[in-house]
């Protein structure tokens, strides 16, 4: 069975076709996916002044669902990672540019930074059309 993969990174687009499942190719594909994941969700949460980790989790969940509904691959845009901290092991997310923007606009509606980001996005869209 032949599988075709298209990987788009910031720097290049790569098309790979192979007819077997190789751990080396799987590893390579995983590394290529990670090239797009340039942001940490925890940094975004601080920047957008999310109220707590729950607001971030909900924004990530909504953003992932939007991608799912639009047939955008989740694993090219979101990756759960684990970090050590004084409180023990915590999780975070690595995000693509698209995922970063989606999480920003999917924060709590009571968050003024989220509201400003949503309005800015709509204004930019209306100015370009």
Structural class: alpha+beta
Globally, the shape reads globular
Gap from first CA to last CA: 45 Å
Spell the H/E element sequence. EEHEHHEEHH
Total domains = 2
What Rg, in angstroms, do the CA atoms define?
17 Å
Low-confidence runs = none
Major sheet: order of its strands?
A: 3-5-4
The fraction of residues assigned to DSSP E strands is 15-25%
Biggest sheet character: 3 strands, antiparallel
Count of DSSP strands: 5
How many helices in DSSP terms?
5
Question: Considering DSSP H and I runs of 4 or more, what fraction of the residues is helical?
Answer: 40-55%
pLDDT averaged residue by residue: 86
Please tell me about this protein's structure.
The protein is α+β, with helices and mostly antiparallel strands. The chain folds into two domains: 1-35, no CATH class; 37-127, no CATH class. It is built from five helices and five strands. The strands form two sheets. The chain has a three-stranded antiparallel β-sheet with strand order 3-5-4. A hairpin with a 4-residue loop joins strand 1 (3-8) and strand 2 (13-18). The radius of gyration is 17 Å and the shape is globular.
């Amino acid at each position: 069975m032949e599988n075709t993969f298209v990987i788009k990174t910031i720097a290049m687009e790569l098309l790979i076709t192979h007819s077997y499942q190789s751990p080396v190719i799987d590893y390579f594909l995983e590394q290529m996916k990670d090239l797009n994941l340039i942001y940490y969700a925890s940094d975004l949460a601080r920047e957008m002044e999310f109220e707590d980790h729950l607001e971030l989790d909900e924004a990530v969940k909504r953003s992932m669902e939007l991608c799912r509904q639009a047939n955008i691959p989740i694993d090219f845009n979101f990756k759960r990672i684990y970090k050590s901290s004084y409180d023990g092991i915590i999780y975070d997310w690595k995000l693509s540019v698209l995922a970063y923007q989606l999480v920003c606009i999917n924060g709590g509606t009571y968050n003024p930074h989220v509201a400003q980001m949503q309005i800015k996005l709509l204004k930019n869209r209306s100015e370009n059309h």
